[in-house]
Amino acid sequence: MSPAVVWDSALLGYDLGTDHPFNPVRLELTVRLATELGVLDDVRLLVPTAAGDEELLRVHAPEYLAAVRDAPLVGWDVGHGLGTADNPVFSDMHDASALVVGSTLLAARKIAEGEARRAVNIAGGLHHAMRDHASGFCVYNDCAVAISWLLDHGFERIAYIDTDVHHGDGVQAAFYDDPRVLTISLHQHPFTLWPGTGYSAETGRGKADGTAVNVPLPPRTRDPGWLRAFNAVVPSLLADFEPQLLFTQCGVDSHEEDPLADLSLSVDGHRAIYATLRDLAETYAGGKWLAVGGGGYQLIRVVPRSWTHLIATVLDRDVDPATPLPAGWVSAVSKAAPHAELPRAMTDDRDTEFKPWGDGEDDPVDVAVRDTRRAVFPLHGLDPDDPRD
């Protein structure tokens, strides 16, 4: 079963405006870079259709869908988080947003129907959208809709891992009391970054207590610290939860050059994250892995390289970090953005080696690791202070 890659240029229609940081050009540049590097050779790109109301209503309120449809006609004062600086109203907003949801649903269907074990959709990852309002550049929550659909189509336990710099609050909220979904979010500490949620003490509700996991990391955390925290928390929980599918939101606004946040990861760190997620899917989820995009606002230098690595990892066509950027891609970008300083290769030349948690040394991220393990691990029968757990 070949991995599924979902893409169509119609997805560029989710466009919040030329001056908005969530610019769809990042998707176009990613697909072009992946194509010119040969990552997409002989790959049939799957063309999505818009999600219907029946699917959107899995996680969104009817009155919210009506507001999204009416917003371009009504204007700016429509409520529901629409018409704000973060979520401006744009023409065809409902259709464009529903198409993003449809693209992630298509990826989910390919896995559920046994046509693929892995799938990737870089246009997805709108993890902030809530039941009745838009939030954080996100109108409809494609991640939550797809997970809900999967739960009704053969899956009883799904692990959602969010590596975006911002807390995966919309997905956590959708499944906060659902023990079938384990949500894990590693993000910049909410005291220092919007949306101000994602503390270690947020662990789920009722029978789902322990299935919401948050690792709030200090600003300026680099690749080794991020990977140290990830490996101190995630594998043990996956081993206990035994998911049937790994769903990952792979935002790349954790990069040190991203203008909207303050973590300090590199393209090399992102590549290491994707390889780790692939290994975890093979080890704990029967190889089933659905990856979507998310945030990322260094549109030229970072997003295309990082998400090309993501696509390559899903396809088992890993790109050597030393690979030079293709001349055709560089030429096209230079013409469109003549003042942009372009990287030379698919690497930032950063060291991603990390020391495992519990090695006796202290790292700035260890406060987050300890707080998260002590909040969640006992709920899974794990010892929070034992590095072997």
UniProtKB/TrEMBL annotation:
Keywords for the protein's UniProt record, in alphabetical order: Acetoin catabolism
Molecular function terms from GO: histone deacetylase activity
Known pathway: Ketone degradation; acetoin degradation
CDD domains reported in the protein's UniProt record: HDAC_AcuC_like
Record InterPro entries: AcuC (IPR003085), HDACs (IPR000286), His_deacetylse_dom (IPR023801), His_deacetylse_dom_sf (IPR037138), Ureohydrolase_dom_sf (IPR023696)
Sequence intervals crossing the membrane: none
UniProt domain Histone deacetylase: residue ranges: 20-313
Biological process, per Gene Ontology: acetoin catabolic process; epigenetic regulation of gene expression
Pfam families assigned to the protein according to its UniProt record, in alphabetical order: Hist_deacetyl (PF00850)
Region (Disordered): 343-365
Compositionally biased residues, Basic and acidic residues: 346-358
Family: Belongs to the histone deacetylase family.
Full protein name: Acetoin utilization protein AcuC
